[in-house]
Amino acid sequence: MNSLEVRQLAYAYPDGTQALFGVDLTIARGERVALLGPNGAGKTTLVMHLNGILTAGHGSVTVAGTPVRKDTLKEVRQRVGLVFQDPDDQLFMPTVRDDVAFGPANAGLRGAELDRVVTEALERVGMLEAADRPPHHLSFGQRRRVAVATVLAMAPEILVLDEPSSNLDPAARRELAEILRSLDVTVLMVTHDLPYALELCERSLILSGGVIAADGPTRELLADSELLARHRLELPYGFAIPAV
Ligand code: ADP
Asked: Which InterPro entries match (predicted)?
């Protein structure tokens, strides 16, 4: 079973800007895949198609066998867990617990079952102790982890993370990596942090100019300096791909 299938997805914004020109990709259940690419490549546009914020101008998106369409949006949004770059776009309740309970409660969970789901999601991101605190009292890294928990509480088929390492200090960045590695869930992460992609994702895609320009083992892609340069991707100063 594939978590995600995108076929010949093309999309132009209402002003005529063509952002995607026929994207094909398949992500199998349990894979962790990085989506790399320069600014303007179409990454955000692609992500917005995964849970139907935008709908296909041409082509199709299928999540765990369910096509993303107007009549399947409710189901698709439960299955695709989008973690925004800014956790403050995702957390708006008085306590961490309320934020994590929001989605499952909306989906009809109540009482002990709801408590169990919330506790489990917070445990998975190491934030159970903060359950009764207001999100705005937490550090940025903690808020990002709570944002991940809000999505995990919906038992998603695929977790889609937008720049998960942005604005994190090195310790928080490493803690989040450990959490992501421990999750038994399909992950697609959009990132400019190439070492993070290497650390967490065996496979990477390069989206460039609205098409998939490369799809392969992260290590191989990042070792190809010409490929990186062609798509305005750069490893940090002094970073060398470690030998296998
Ligand atoms: P990325 O996330 O990789 O930086 P985007 O998906 O944001 O790329 O953008 C892809 C292309 O679509 C760019 O040319 C961008 O200028 C254009 N674009 C993005 N949002 C809009 C919009 N709302 N209206 C028109 N063009 C847009």
From this structure: AAA+_ATPase, ABC_transporter-like_ATP-bd, ABC_transporter-like_CS, ABC_transpr_CbiO/EcfA_su, Co_trans_ATP-bd, ECF_ABC_transporter_ATP-bd, P-loop_NTPase
Considering its fold, how many domains does the chain have in total? 1
Q: Is residue 12 part of a domain?
A: yes
CA of 147 relative to ligand 1 center, distance in Å: 24
Nearest protein Cα to ligand 1, atom 12: 19
Ligand 1 mean position to 237 CA, how many Å? 28
- Show the domain range for 60: 2-92+158-230
Low-confidence ranges of the chain (pLDDT < 50): none
pLDDT score at 56: 77
CA-nearest residue, atom 7 of ligand 1 = 44
pTM of the model: 0.96
Q: Tell which one of 45, 50, 208 to mutate to probe ligand 1, the residue whose CB is within 8 A of the most ligand atoms.
A: 45
Q: Which of 23, 44, 205 to mutate to test the pocket of ligand 1 (most atoms within 8 A of CB)?
A: 44
Q: Is the residue at 123 inside a domain? A: no
Residues 6+ positions from 160 with CB-CB distance below 8 Å: 47, 50, 51, 80, 81, 82, 83, 187, 188, 189, 190
CA 83 distance to own-chain centroid: 6
Indicate whether 82 belongs to any domain.
yes
Distance (Å) of CA 34 to CA 66, 116, 176, 193: 23, 31, 15, 10
Position in ligand 1 atom list of the atom nearest CA 42:
6
Q: How far is the CA of 38 from the centre of ligand 1 (A)?
A: 11
Nearest-angstrom CA–CA distance, 242 and 223: 10
Q: What is the pLDDT of residue 241?
A: 87
Domain containing residue 8: CATH number:
3.40.50.300
